[in-house]
Write a structure and sequence with these properties.
By secondary structure, this protein is of the alpha/beta class. It is built from 8 helices and 5 strands.
Amino acid sequence: MSDNNPFGGSFGGNGGQYTTSVQYGGAAPAPAKVALGDAPAAPADVIKDTTTAAFAADVIQESRRQPVLVDFWAPWCGPCKQLTPQLEKAVKAAGGRVKLVKMNIDDHPSIAGQLGIQSIPAVIAFKDGQPVDGFMGAIPESQINEFITKVGGKGNGAPPVAEALAAAIEARAAGDMQTAADIYDAILAQAPETIEAIAGLGELLFDAGDTEGAEALLATAPE
């Protein structure tokens, strides 16, 4: 398949070899997962797939308006299958502070080559049309959330948890219970004692018929 790279130059320094080292603290314990059927497609304005031809518009131009995370993946990559759903969940919970663009490097290899990416999964953050940060490999949800906060800020002065809770309420009002569950799950990964998230996720578990799981979750609520 032809992969016509619209960029004649190289990204970053070192002859197009973009490298970065991002270090974070330890991961928070992961909360119990909730199963509410198949997850709906991610909103097109927050999460989307891209191609080599569309990369300039989807990433370079868009990053001049807000930070864009590019997830480089391939269908055969096991760690990619672990990381991508966590990225999607974290971006939804971020309340629009960043966008996520996914690129299949099997179909579109040239951009990854220009960025010097030699292993996947790889996530590169773009701001103002340039790659500014990134990480390689599947990392814990808590570190993904820290990375998004570092790149996208805390947004409009509101605490990230408050923003995420508002996004969960909005998802429930729209009938998108899986997205709401994902957001509550992401909140509890970084702030396990958030009573609103515990209650919200507990209600979803009850509604899904998992009474035992709901009771176990509610038992973790601080007194």
